[in-house]
Amino acid sequence: MRLVNRRFIPFAFDLSSRGFLGDKAARDFVTKARPEYGGGSVSTPKLLIMTPEGKVVGSISNYGSTQEVLRVLQESLKNAPAYAALTEAEKEYGPYQRAELALDLLQYDDVYKALRSETTVRAHYMRGVVKRRRGQWRQMNQDFANVKGDEFADHVRVEKAYELWATGKFAELEKSLRKVRRASTRYSEAQYFIGIALFHQGHAKKAQAHWRKTIKKLPQDGWIYRADWALHDSQTKRGGAVMMTSAGNSKSALGRIGYMGRRNPDLTPR
Amino acid sequence: MKLRMTLTVLCAMTLPSVAGEDEAPARLSMDKTGLRWIEPFTNAHAAAKAQKRLLFVKPIAFGTKPNGCW
Description:
A: two-stranded antiparallel ribbon
């Protein structure tokens, strides 16, 4: 998401001009490049990466995985470098802002370059985040051992939890994440994974109760949506896509309806 | 303008599911996925040109309503 916000202009519209998100200018722009989207009956359209001149430089299945989305976004930027340049403001960034930008753009070597002279806890933390994303657990723990003090304590706890998650140490995962404080910006993420930890320990009902409580009590963000997804998915038979309708009890806990994507991969047995 | 709904469909990043029969769904708020949608297209297109950025366009092929879809 940060990659999209940094380097793309996100826009959505209904191909039908009668829909709430109908937009004739958008329809004309897109159907010029993709005439097949101009018919009366259109199968699920792909997400398109387009230049302002109307050239499609990338496309992603509506059912694509996160990895596929990221791959196509990165390839699109590589294939259209004129649209990937640093902004004037970014050119003036200091080391930490450059490192943040590089993290958002998934250019991890540039994080190290930006921070090469920095020895603060923040620098150690950011280097640890790169290693976490790369699955370099031993090196990650070395960096996080240098993150002293309270400022990044909850961040480090959540970052280190990914190793416990990846290695299937679900009881430890749950125990560690229960220490994340309510005021932390990582709190909803921690609650989501506590549910995941419960689920994989064989406590599906407890996991569902935890997600339900989390969804009800916390402000909505991407982790709450993911908890909503996990809650629904864990209550239905595996196989096929997750499809919600406005009928009966098939709305999500948040009241969402529509295509909800593939099955939540975090529920897959490990 | 933020999208007045959470269309999981918009990409594989948002998503969702089912309440137990004994409970009312929580109240759905504005899209909080974190994507900074720009609407309508004329604004998005102008921003892409001015900022020299690529458009990330999700066409939707079903009826959209103010509260979502269908």
